[in-house]
């Protein structure tokens, strides 16, 4: 990665764009936002990248940093998109807030361009970035460690609920007031990371919410949160409910035909509220992948580590303390091949959770499913 870094622009010239921390700040530059801006001050352009299938936290974070960079450094920025945005709420966010995203596959990096990664870390298997990406900074809150050795600026805070909270703290430190549109994006980004159950939040998240709430457009947030849903959503949810099996304090839901990859998370967000379990996993087939989503209703669950141990070399996984996701590429989507991988996954999961191998008990019995079916 290092040898392909573009040369900085005008290092010896008199810089008009050079960043100086606000007066009154110690020259030791204790504030991370000062160091972040200083690191970027000599580039011609800054591009923001994030993980595949960007979610509200990654979209809001890209928008917030772009706004900060443009306001304080006067450097042009661009936001990118890796993969698709398919969840209805996330699509509504992009549409209603008019977020312009350049598809990552069509991008060529220019000399003098810096790339900032948000809500993710390099080499975690969550991007389609080439080796030539001029990555200068990484700002994230995931437990899953990435390869950060070559990165000049790193701010990873695992105790934070949302990357948007970290970005909001940069804006506050630099006294850059977010526009209503930006405040809406940041608030929704934080809300989606925090307001589910189990909640993983810190005082910095609360501070950001308090600051952003009066500035945000609550009508737009309501429209995003309650985005209209396609028929495939109900089909996917029904499949999940019909194929949910309980093993002690764990429930596993198999979806043979996931309408879109993020649906796995929606299924477990629903199932983790079941009072009889502490863990919920959804494994759904989407295209040639088995998409995994895990939730834990107990503290110090280390869900990210646990899922990554379970998946091992079959694929990749990671996440937070109580929320995790993963992906297993399927070599075949035949019924047999899928059943094999499902049974291997179940075996591994029961083992790491110290649950005895047993026949799973259906969440909804077959008899009930059939009896209540109107024809
Ligand atoms: Mn996030």
Give the H and E element order: HEHEHEEEEHHHHHEEHEEHEEHEH
- The CATH superfamily title of the largest domain: inorganic pyrophosphatase (n-terminal core)
Largest sheet: 7 strands, mixed
The structure class reads alpha/beta
Ions and ligands? manganese (II) ion
As laid out across the biggest beta sheet, the strand order is 11-12-10-9-8-7-13
Shape: globular
- Counted up, domains total 2
User: What is the averaged pLDDT score?
Assistant: 92
Look up the CATH topology of the largest domain. Answer: inorganic pyrophosphatase (n-terminal core)
Number of helices: 12
Low-confidence sequence ranges: 1-16
The total strand number stands at: 13
Question: What share of residues is helical?
Answer: 25-40%
CATH architecture of the largest domain: Alpha-Beta Complex
Span from first to last CA?
Answer: 60 Å
Q: What would the keywords be for this entry?
A:
12 helices; alpha/beta; 2 domains; single chain; binds manganese (II) ion; 36% helix; 13 strands; 375 residues; globular; 6-stranded parallel β-sheet; inorganic pyrophosphatase (n-terminal core); Diaminopimelate Epimerase, Chain A, domain 1; 7-stranded mixed β-sheet
Q: Can you describe this structure in just a few lines?
A:
The protein has helices spanning 32-40, 56-73, 88-96, 163-173, 180-194, 203-212, 218-225, 231-242, 263-271, 303-311, 335-352, 366-371; strands spanning 45-49, 77-81, 102-103, 113-118, 135-140, 153-156, 244-247, 250-255, 279-286, 289-296, 316-319, 323-329, 361-362. The chain is of the alpha/beta class and 375 residues long. The longest helix has 18 residues, at 56-73.
